[in-house]
Amino acid sequence: MNTRLQVEHPVTELITGVDLVEQQINIARGEAITLKQEDLKICGHALELRVYAEDPLNDFLPSVGTLTTYKIPVGKGIRVDDGFEEGLEIPIYYDPMLSKLITYGKTREESIQLMINAIDNYKVEGAFTTLPFGKFVCEHEAFRSGNFDTHFVKNYFTPEKLIASTKEEAKIAALVALRIYLEDEKTLKLPTN
């Protein structure tokens, strides 16, 4: 018997509304289970991304260092289970998982879009993370359509594809910044007498 909770237990908790950790503690105290199978209903969709201090551009090798910036995303439908904070060291001696990033929406598409937004708002400096890879997966047509299997990485991922997707994002961000700058420059010009 495997009596531990799986890493992905927050997905089950979000779609059922049942706190599995609380249930496990109650059972360990000898309390009776208050739920029956027929009481459980699935509502909505949830995704979980394991955020690791690993470099997806270097064969997902561990990335050690000090978290000089560590800001988690917040908002409706976003949950982060973590044990790190800004300033902490990521050592080579332990599992490099920083957190579990979980999103919940009424539909799978809503949950995926929330995940992409949450990844964009997750700020980590001082170590490489799997966040860019997670975004790559969530934006990939095979994943979005559900037409993929356990060979997703082998079939669709290369470091070059990840670099190309981040370069395109940087180009778009630069163009938006330039447009804002030019608009601001027009507004800030004062007439001379």
Describe this structure in words.
The chain has 193 residues and is an alpha+beta fold. Helices cover 41% and strands 19% of the residues. The strands form 4 sheets. It has a 3-stranded antiparallel sheet with strand order 1-8-6. Strands 2-3 form a two-stranded antiparallel ribbon. A two-stranded antiparallel sheet has the order 4-7. Helix 3 runs antiparallel to helix 4. The longest helix has 30 residues. The mean pLDDT is 88.
Instruction: Summarize the amount of helix as a percent range.
Output: 40-55%
Give the name of the CATH superfamily of the largest domain.
ATP-grasp fold, B domain
Mean of pLDDT:
88
What is the overall silhouette? globular
Q: Spans of 5+ residues with little confidence (pLDDT < 50)? A: none
Sheet of most strands: 3 strands, antiparallel
Tally of helical segments: 7
CATH class of the largest domain: Alpha Beta
Structural class: alpha+beta
Strand order, biggest sheet?
Answer: 1-8-6
| CATH topology type of the largest domain | D-amino Acid Aminotransferase, Chain A, domain 1
Oligomeric form:
single chain
Rg on CA atoms, Å: 21 Å
Determine the strand fraction and express it as a percent band: 15-25%
Taking the alpha carbons of the first and last residues, their distance comes to 85 Å
Q: What's the β-strand tally?
A: 9
CATH architecture of the largest domain: 2-Layer Sandwich
